[in-house]
Amino acid sequence: MKLGAYDYITKPVHPDALELCVARRFSHLHLLEEVRTLRSHTGPEVRLREHSWGRSEALLYVLDQTARAAQTDAPC
């Protein structure tokens, strides 16, 4: 799993377990595509700024830093 496997199946393979594993993977891929599509229509900084409860300089700084961090591949 640490090397990038999405899921695993134990032997003996049970058909229901295999079907569930495949369905989860396709669902995950669909969600990833949906996120890519939505992000292409609006950047994270736009969404954060539009839905903020304040406009203070400190808050805008935090939102800017958050948007920058979101664009990296660094782990959480």
Describe this entry's structure for a reader:
This protein has 76 residues and is an all-alpha fold. It has three helices and no strands. The two termini are 18 Å apart.
Radius of gyration: 19 Å
Q: DSSP strand (E) fraction?
A: under 5%
- Report the total helices: 3
Our measurement of the CA-to-CA distance between the termini, rounded to an integer number of angstroms, reads: 18 Å
Give the biggest beta sheet.
none
Helix content: 55-70%
Mean pLDDT: 79
What's the structural blueprint in terms of helices and strands?
Blueprint: H1 15-41, H2 44-50, H3 57-70
Helix pairs in contact: 2-3
Short description:
The protein is mainly alpha-helical and 76 residues long.
Key attributes of the depicted protein:
mainly alpha; 3 helices; 0% strand
